[in-house]
Amino acid sequence: MTSRSNEAIPGHPIVLGCGQLCLDYLVTVPSFPVPDQKIRATSFKVQGGGNTGNTLTCAARLGLASRILAKVADDSQGRWMLEELESSGVDTSFCVTAKDGVSHFNYVIVDNQTNTRTCVFTPGYPPLLPDDLTESLLVDVLDRVRVIHVTGRSRETELLLAQKAHSKNVSILINAEKRREGLDKLLDLADYAVCSTHFPQAWTESPSAPSALLSMLIRLPKLKFVIMTLGEDGCAMLERCPNEVPESEETDIDELHESLKQSTDFTSVLPVCNSSMVTRLKGNVTGRLYIVTAEKIPSSELMDTTGAGDAFTGGLLYGLCTDMTLEETLTFASRVAACCCRGLGARTTLPFRTDPNLAAFLGA
């Protein structure tokens, strides 16, 4: 890891995350155990986790002023999680502490043989509730915020925050991992959506992934773009381009995706971004399709993919808040995610803005 700086860049807008915090107990094993087997771990680490905390830690290390709204128990684990976030530059002053309760925790088993990880989550209590958000807290927590990040795990609470953000013209980025109760109402308010591989098709019931991305833009008119993450295969994004009207006839999204794949350099070690022309698509959508490859990490350097998606989202938030082009933002976020995979746990190797791997983007 390079020299560190947790100071926010002067003049940069604030990002706010609302969601759950948890404590990760991470263990690496030579191979995943079979039932009734006893094995030895090769390493062990305790670290803060949870999508929201990981994403904001990443954003803060990159230099964004980062603020979190969450609830922790008044126990040693809760205090430790807040202190760890603060050490990375995340503002935790708006977090709610429950006098009675238990913090969330997560067992993470990292399989060195397959480079996969298995998570066993144990929810704590009590959850962050709408009653925890007073009107004055909502006003204060959204002050000078440019983008809020939500996941749908805290349902009604995140919806209340998102509705207030929407009324103040604050952009909303949602991570849609799987179908959850109340998620549709959050999606209706979202400006940007970052989805897991299977979510778009599961949510839209579309026959293909590209058509699912298009269906999301059709069903969610406020959405500016939707991203589908693909792990080691990178990601795909469909951007809405309402102010550009191509003269061409309507193009089939699956054919456009196949054509774009054919012209994408999947052999590149570093991430590359390939985009289509602005195209007229089904449902009166004018858009541009992007394919982004992932960085090819040598097996000797690949340690753990825990939190890679959160790191990608952190990089994405940085690009949105610093007015990078979408092409730059996507390749930058992919490089940030690759940095995360080189250490055990979601935060160990999250890069600081001085990381030489990011110099091409940040001039470090």
UniProtKB/TrEMBL annotation:
InterPro entries membership: Carboh/pur_kinase_PfkB_CS (IPR002173), Ketohexokinase-related (IPR052562), PfkB_dom (IPR011611), Ribo/fructo_kinase (IPR002139), Ribokinase-like (IPR029056)
Any GO molecular function: kinase activity
Gene3D superfamilies noted in UniProt: 3.40.1190.20
PROSITE patterns: PFKB_KINASES_2, PROKAR_LIPOPROTEIN
Residue intervals of the Carbohydrate kinase PfkB domain: 22-239, 294-351
Any Pfam family: PfkB
Alphabetic keyword roster: Kinase, Transferase
Coiled-coil residues: none
Signal peptide coordinates: none
Family of this protein: Belongs to the carbohydrate kinase PfkB family.
Protein name (Swiss-Prot/TrEMBL): Carbohydrate kinase PfkB domain-containing protein
Organism (species): Brassica campestris
